[in-house]
């Protein structure tokens, strides 16, 4: 359970209150006497009217309590517009979406977390281009860095929904205060701190890349973060699209830079063993030695907030918190690696376009954020509506004008590479295989 998740009772009360307000505000069609305050509740949804009684189906990988929060987040929209949103979440989403689409049973909308998958459906002629209203809403609320991931061959298909920031290093504020350590803001300070901790007899870093069938992915995130720190954003884009080969010297430089930490026996793997223990340590457990003082630093995404042992206080003055993974050359900007999902449409009925437009709006972003445990790159998202401290930090980074955002590279590459040979290559690399051999093997696997 997420550390900052509101209790189910609170969610239930909020849902009931929200429903009551919505019903009161929007009425049932028989109540013509709503006062100004009540009518104001539905004012934000005026542009989506005219679709009363219509249904829109949505398919995604979002399940359990997160799916309940989705239902709560658009409840007032449903009540005010009369559109029924039928959301289905599945653990087999990526595999089953293709089956459904090819079988003529596509959902109206899908929340797709891989831009490469958006491109695949668009190239196959399965997706509907976003309406002019959706495009205008997206351009108003999202940066060009984000919009390009929902664009294929110059055609815009869908705006982002939720987001996550991967360029984080987790640490213990309590331990830092006790030891007199300072949160580093530059790469040189990060390495100096690592050396200082190592000299004290503690392994400064802990890491783990074991993730069952997906073992290796946390190491690909390291490489992606280092590509953004050793190269320009343009070179990163060339790498993810095979504009440069996978074994290009620029890629080798980034991998070796990651190796100055991950393959440094003086630095890793606090609480678990040496370098090779990284390949057998689960990503869920990898950061936990921070809570016992066996390591001090763990590079992992914002969503790692949900992995800490129950009772761990995640806050700036708590047991654990995170800081931005520093740039090597701050003068070149603030590189940010992250992910998210995109709202893609397989139908273009008016009610489907209305929901797709609404999900790109500031009203939706703030509605969902207030419920908790959610981040978006939507420019209209008010920080005051983001209760979770790590989520708040993530939104600040995403909204920072200096930030240069790039999407998770393995999600942009062909699946055979991004979730295949790249993952496997990182396991081999951690276990001792040299950089050149690993990169050559991945390069050879790129689809011709």
From TrEMBL:
It comes from the Bacteria. Residues 1-25 form the signal peptide. PROSITE patterns: PROKAR_LIPOPROTEIN. The keyword Transport applies. Keywords: Signal, Transport. InterPro entries: Bact_solute-bd_prot1. Belongs to the bacterial solute-binding protein 1 family. This is Sugar ABC transporter substrate-binding protein. It comes from Micromonospora haikouensis.
